[in-house]
Amino acid sequence: MKKRPELLAPAGNLEKLKMAILYGADAVFIGGQQFGLRSRAGNFGYDEMAEGVAFAHERGAKVYVAANMVTHEGDIEGAGAFFCKLRDIGIDAVIVSDPAMIEVCLTDAPGLPVHLSTQASATNYETLRFWQEEGLERIVLAREVSMEEIKEMKRQVDVEIETFVHGAMCISYSGRCTLSNHMALRDANRGGCAQSCRWKYGFFEADELLTDEMAARDEEPFSMSSVDLAMVRHIPDLVDAGVDSLKIEGRMKSIHYVATVCNVYRQVIDAYCADPEGFEFNPAWEEEIWKAAQRELATGFYYGVPTENEQLFGKPRAIPQYAFAARVISYEPSTQMATLEQRNHFRHGEEVEFFGPGFVRFSQRIDELYDESGERLETANQAMMTVRVKVEQPVATDFIMRKRKAGVVSTPVPSPV
Amino acid sequence: MMIQLVTTAQSVEQAEALIMAGSDRIYIGDSTYGLRHKGDWSFPAVREVTAIAHRYGKEVTVAVNNLMHNEQIKSLPEYLKELKTIGVDSVTAGDPGAIRMIRNANIPYWYDAQTLVTSARHIQFWGKRDAIGAVVAREVTLTELEIIQQQIGLPVEVQVYGPTCIHHSKRPLLTNYFNEIGRSNTLAEEREYYVSEPSDADSRYPVYQDDNGTHVFSEDLTLMGQLPALLKGGLHTWKLEGWHAGDAFVDIVRLFDKARSDLLNGRFDRHVMERRLAELQPEQFRLGTGLLLRNPEEIK
Fold it and tell me: Is A359 helix (H, G, I), strand (E, B) or coil?
């Protein structure tokens, strides 16, 4: 037996929060209406937070709030009251990067644990020591830290360490990129990042324009776009290094992503920690991870500095894409009928997959599809409509039905404007 | 009131010329502990430049503003001890671990966490922890800089000339790119590379790679026209970055020195000075004001 690290998942809204926890997350991180870095993610009002906290705490899970904005003059107004409110709601910790915000939280809302955000780029043990002395409980490391460096940090300092195991990543040190500010007037450190790193740039040497010459040779334009992180095959290394919390990125991502990724990492962590010697990696875990992938996957900086193979150039490789087709509302074992809430268009005769917490999964064809009144249906084409489907294996409430999408993943290059 | 010109230097000789041209503080650094300094700034050179600066009653600041990994932090106390022995006047630092060690070594430091330094309260946090001043993010507008300076007793450094870093990746993005397109061995230190943004073909952002990864710079900033506002707003620490200004840099610093005395004597002529700066500016790089003159409300 090994001590199990926390599995920490993103939750862009209340439904995602619940699904993340049902699918195995020990904790979730959410955003409030203010002070966050994801202005476009669905953020939580206080009532929703309270509901999320109640749901999580009933199941032994925790809720953290990301308040990792890099504040300018005036932005910090109300932060003290905000932190007090979070503490009173029962939020388990806040994730903060700006020292001004840290100070406000520690002074105005004592008792509310503070985690240092990855935006602060903690990259060495002395920095961990500094923040621990200031009263922080946990440090989310910069994504540039290697496995060996984590081990050294754990030897040097006794503070909780959280690292990213999955999801999209900045190609810069997080927080140290203002391309978006300068090129799109959108502040990357206040939730407005235009993903300028992923644009295609003209390239020059000295004062000589190389772009035309390169275009003539059909060369790839300059870009700085990182593939995504996936440590699914390397969880034993992270557990052995003593990492306290394994974080999944993606408050903007879908329910399908959150459920799929949590489900897999839950399995890997539990399997390894229960029997480290007998642990064997199950290829089905990785197969499952790819169903929620939006870019190529790699291991970031854990085992070395990423090369061109960990950047996106040229046409993206075809990765089959899956959609969240429906959510199971209820199931009758006697008739094998499942009641579903539709989330994406699907039809009679289509191949689908069901999956649920605990890594239950199976594929089948939709042979029987009915509407609420029992009339046969050809297609389930209305958003949130209730339908009934005959399932070949038992399912339960909150199982997900996914289907292969017609296309493949090709995350579009974001446009400059 | 004392206006201080802080200038980068790429060699001991250039540093001396810059001091003669009006620089009050020479800013240098080594790539192990500092970010983005050209030239060899090993201990003998630091010792030499410090002796020269002190002879003229000027100062030397050494960059210790890197994002330190364990290996760098391990050797940092030795480095600081030597800087202390040499007698440099101050360092810049933004890594809290490095700051912890700098305070232990009793060396005055300017807080410099680059893009993250954006408010008075943030600076005050470090002021309470012995910072003697702060390098504010170049994304902070002049309007905001004035508000920040009014609230704090510490000097705030404003960049009045040259490019600033707008992207720092730990990855070797130029090497990766050249490998991708099959151009081997093209990454030579003497070569300079630039990118232009998709919607502005005339833009030129220098891209530079070293042991610390890849750095993208902004256009060349200038606040020549806003020096009277800086003076009035109490913003008296003026930084000039000579990254790619070459031999023109000494003349550019001399021009800012003249601008300073003209201002103090009430003889500052904005148009003349801006024209003279444009004449000195290397022609391939345009001058701009970055985000400095933007209305803070414009930046979302």
Answer: coil
